[in-house]
Specification:
There is one protein chain. The chain is of the alpha+beta class and about 400 residues long. It folds into three domains: about 120 residues, Orthogonal Bundle (Butyryl-Coa Dehydrogenase, subunit A, domain 1); about 110 residues, Butyryl-CoA Dehydrogenase, subunit A, domain 2; about 150 residues, Butyryl-CoA Dehydrogenase, subunit A, domain 3. The chain is about 50% helix and about 15% strand. The chain has ten helices and ten strands. Strands 1-4-5-8 form a four-stranded mixed sheet. β9 and β10 form a beta hairpin. It is globular, with a radius of gyration of 21 Å.
Length: about 400
């Protein structure tokens, strides 16, 4: 379909696709097996300028004054990279998750200090909200930040943080006043190497194994008060606004995984022969491929629509972002499961890429809010809209 991409967006798409097919795809299985972060590939992505697709030109990115938040740009790049590997694509997508809080809530001084290196890919970012006892219930985080003169002292542990140990810049949510619940949370920029900031175990994951996932440990970690994003008590708001902007990126990752699985399934069905003819000559299999294509195209329509809505200035998009993330990630699981079926026994073997795509797809239903939480967000917003007459 013609999605009427701008000249810049078409360039982003072509650049990301070339990197995905020529650089990422040949190396995807190796990085998955080794459970290693792809530093050399991250540098290729950075040199191509893709880390700056959602950052203003003022801070070293490629966003012009009329380009909105650049979420559509991010979606396009993430989708294309994820067609080759959903894990490797996270070096970009997870950096966006850690960078968006600075874009949304950062002071001018903070933006000038941090965004240029993030836009160039010289440094990558991570976002720290989830804890052992506070995943979907983000208001129950236990990491604390106590004021001490012109610093805050952070104590606590963050769990399952994407880009974990490899990032240089972290957006961290901690409680400055536990008595206020979610309204007592605040957000901070924490730099790697800050005394008291260290890393726990590296997670051994089912999928997205080329992505670095670690515990973050804060033990009397002194963070300058100047590194607070916004004001005290705005941490939960910062996190929720960030997710509204970033969930289309998760949806794009899921979309890319599904799209890559469909492409591989069609190519395999055209060449694999049984009973003296390609298996694609079987009408039942063509129906299966058709349903896969229908799901991918409808997911793409939803994801692109939400991204464009955000870029047009619609920042009240919690419901729509949740729908895009939920739908695209559910589609990713359905399509990759069907793609494994198309491959038959070969689809179950690690020497082929399909079982990896299925493993990678699963996490998209879980992180940045499980799909059950997304459905609750959607349902609550529907009730709110009905009550207000919107």
């Amino acid at each position: 379909m013609n999605w009427f991409l701008t000249e810049t967006q078409q360039m982003i798409k072509e650049t990301a696709r070339e990197i995905a097919q020529k650089v990422i795809k040949p190396a995807a299985i190796e990085f998955d097996e080794k459970n290693e972060f792809p530093w050399d590939i991250q540098k290729v992505i950075a040199d191509a300028g893709l880390f700056g697709v959602y950052v203003s030109e003022e801070y070293g990115g490629m966003l012009g004054p009329d380009d909105g938040m650049g979420i559509m740009n991010l979606v396009i790049a993430t989708e294309e990279l994820s067609k080759a590997c959903g894990g490797i694509s996270l070096c970009l997508a997870a950096t966006a998750l850690g960078t968006i809080p600075i874009i949304l809530m950062g002071s001018e001084e903070q933006k000038k200090k941090y965004l240029p290196d993030l836009a160039s890919g010289k440094k990558i970012a991570a976002f720290g909200l989830t804890e052992a006892g506070a995943g979907s219930d983000a208001g129950s985080i236990q990491t604390t930040a106590k004021r001490d003169g012109d610093h805050y002292i952070l104590n606590g542990t963050k769990q399952w943080i994407t880009n974990g140990e490899v990032a240089e810049t972290y957006s961290i949510v901690a409680m400055t006043d536990k008595k206020k619940g979610a309204r007592g949370a605040s957000a901070f920029i924490v730099e790697k190497g800050t005394p008291g900031f260290s890393f726990g175990k590296k997670e051994d994951k089912m999928g997205i194994r080329a992505s670095s996932t670690y515990e973050l440990v804060f033990e009397d970690c002194r963070v300058p008060a100047a590194n607070m994003l916004g004001k005290e008590g705005m941490g939960f708001l910062t996190a929720m606004r960030t997710f509204d902007m970033s969930r289309p990126g998760v949806a794009a990752q899921a979309l890319g995984i599904a799209g890559g699985a469909l492409d591989d399934a069609v190519a395999y069905a055209r060449t694999r022969e049984q009973f003296g003819k390609p298996i694609v000559s079987n009408q039942g299999l063509r129906f299966l491929l058709a349903d896969m294509s229908i799901r991918v195209e409808t997911a793409r329509a939803m994801v692109y629509a939400v991204a464009r809505s955000i870029d047009s200035g619609d920042h009240k998009c919690s419901k729509e972002s949740a729908i895009a993330k939920t739908y695209a990630s559910d589609i990713a699981m359905q399509v990759t499961t069907d793609a494994v079926q198309v491959f038959g026994g070969y689809g179950y073997m690690k020497e082929y890429p399909m079982e990896k795509r299925m493993r990678d797809a699963k996490i998209t239903q879980i992180y940045e809010g499980t799909n059950q939480i997304q459905r609750d967000v959607i349902g609550l917003q529907l009730v709110k809209e009905a009550a207000s007459g919107e």
